[in-house]
């Protein structure tokens, strides 16, 4: 019997980063959980116990903190992830691919009566939700260190939403196993996991000796910027499309609403190739009060509910640009 190593990837995960960017008294902040994994000519570290090809995971952590301090792109998770991945692939000759995942925690400015800026307080923030932005980047140098390709997927995890009406579920397939009652009015709640994938991009290889340079090729207002991975308004548009469509759609099913949300994101962002959602049902079951001669089951009269965590439906789909 023989066996061979067919895939290998390693790196550092759960690198926690908090960064303040100061512009006079005006402060911007980000908080990230970073994972950076490497691929390349590293097989002998597994098969021959050869550590000479291993960039230590502690070094990967140190590089993450170094670029968190020095990168001008730290406030954009997409750009910072691309910068970090480009550094690894460019710095180390035997590393051909880098995979960087960033989870961004929410911080919003506190608003104070009489403050100078409509954007909020200059240096005070609060956590305004448990949902997180997630960015996944692959920087591929397999074709050559001067032919770097970036692949970016971004999105939202754990965005909890609920509407108390405007949702129905009727005319579904019925057979001897179907016990679910059809309803024309129900609570619709889910925890949104959204991801959208951009078209692959060419990345300019750094020209400086230490390989820390990273060039953003498109700036706001230039042709091709709008809706691209460089467009810093894409995350807000995707979030807005998700929330607004969820709110106003007279939902015939979770599937139908999901499709409308994804269609809007593709339509509004020219470089987004595909959109995926995972929408688990958060069930709210009307409490049966008939033993007290109280109607709490008729949809129009249902007002007291029991939240149920499991089991739950899970609706997923990917919508792709033609």
TrEMBL record:
5-hydroxyisourate binds at residues 57, 169, 186, 254, 281. It is found in: Peroxisome. Belongs to the uricase family. One of its GO terms (cellular component) is peroxisome. This is Uricase. SUPFAM superfamilies: Tetrahydrobiopterin biosynthesis enzymes-like (SSF55620). Pathway: Purine metabolism; urate degradation; (S)-allantoin from urate: step 1/3. InterPro entries: Uricase, Uricase_CS. The keyword Transcription regulation does not apply. It comes from the Eukaryota. O2 binds at residues 57, 281. GO terms for biological process: purine nucleobase catabolic process; urate catabolic process.
């Amino acid at each position: 019997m023989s066996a061979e190593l067919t895939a290998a990837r390693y790196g550092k995960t759960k690198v926690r980063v908090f960064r303040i960017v100061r512009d006079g008294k005006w402060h911007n902040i980000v908080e990230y959980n970073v994972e950076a994994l490497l691929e390349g000519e590293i097989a002998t570290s597994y098969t021959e116990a050869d550590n000479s090809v291993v960039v230590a995971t502690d070094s990967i952590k140190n590089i993450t903190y170094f670029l968190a301090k020095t990168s001008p792109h730290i406030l954009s998770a997409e750009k910072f992830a691309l910068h970090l991945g480009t550094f690894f692939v460019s710095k180390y000759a035997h590393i051909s691919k880098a995979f960087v995942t960033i989870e961004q925690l929410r911080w919003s400015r506190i608003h104070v009566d009489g403050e100078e800026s409509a954007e909020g307080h200059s240096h005070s923030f609060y956590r305004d939700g448990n949902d997180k932005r997630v960015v996944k980047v692959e920087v591929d140098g397999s074709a050559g260190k001067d032919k770097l390709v970036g692949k970016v997927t971004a999105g939202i995890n754990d965005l909890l939403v609920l509407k108390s009406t405007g949702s129905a579920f009727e005319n579904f397939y019925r057979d001897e196993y179907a016990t679910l009652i059809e309803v024309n009015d129900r609570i619709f709640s889910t925890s949104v996991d959204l991801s959208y994938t951009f078209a692959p991009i060419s990345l300019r290889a750094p020209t400086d000796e230490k390989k820390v340079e990273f060039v953003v090729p498109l700036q706001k207002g230039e042709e091709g910027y709008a809706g691209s991975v460089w467009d810093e308004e894409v995350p807000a548009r995707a979030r807005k499309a998700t929330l607004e469509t969820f709110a106003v759609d007279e939902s015939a099913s979770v599937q139908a609403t999901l499709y409308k949300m994804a269609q809007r994101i593709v339509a509004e962002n020219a470089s987004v190739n595909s959109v995926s959602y995972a929408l688990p049902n958060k069930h709210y079951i009307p409490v049966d009060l008939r033993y007290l001669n109280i109607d709490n089951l008729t949809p129009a009269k249902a007002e007291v509910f029991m939240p149920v965590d499991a089991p739950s439906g899970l609706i997923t789909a990917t919508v792709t640009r033609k």
